[in-house]
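Lecture 7 notes: from sequence to structure.
We start with the chain below.
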Amino acid sequence: MTPNEFLDKAWQESGPKLISGFSRPVYHNVMGLLRGRKYDKKAYGGMIRHTEAGMLTTWASQVPRGGVIVEIGCYGGLSTSYLLRGLKQHGGTIYSMDPFNSDLDKQAELTDNCVPLDNKPTKALVEQRLEKNGFAGMFKLIEGFSQEVAANWDPSIKIDFLWIDGNHEQAYRDFKDFEPYLNPGARVAVHDAHPRYGYQEVVRDVRKIFAEGQWEDMEHVKSIIAGRLIK
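Predicted structure tokens for the same chain:
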């Protein structure tokens, strides 16, 4: 099945739910129950479902020992905590970027109107939260916009898992900005990438992302589309 065919099936409004194949709802729900209910979604202000959280933990646990995860869009640290929970099994580092509560005028100009700018979590708050969760020394929070972070990225830092959940109008740009730093076999996952559960701009960009290069292990989990890039 080509990535395009996979997306067509994943985005169907109706159809059979499969135990294996392009969609694995039984497995996803089990992972959600086991791994996706650890943190208080309401307190963190996060917008991921328990099945999505469980699979973020699962995918992070599959990163090579000492590997690197890059997260675009941290907000209150909910998805960051699930990623770190999986990454902790083999060690490694997550680089998580977000403007947090800085430069709100620029955020207002660039906003996709999906996240309220009032009372945005601060970088210090998220740092404290992640340390309290037991992840001290495993993360680097970067306060800034993804395009600026990418422009100053250290090319010696190669990425094993790229999680795109930032501005919904630039998912494709975020992918292209960090694509040069992806290791062979790196996983790329994009949130809000389903016509029913997500945003049309992300759906459009995901079609473009997975039309380029060669991909394997494509997976659809609620609003997430993921795959591993073959180089």
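Points to note: The first strand starts at residue 67 and ends at 72. The domain at 3-230 is CATH 3.40.50.150 (Rossmann fold).
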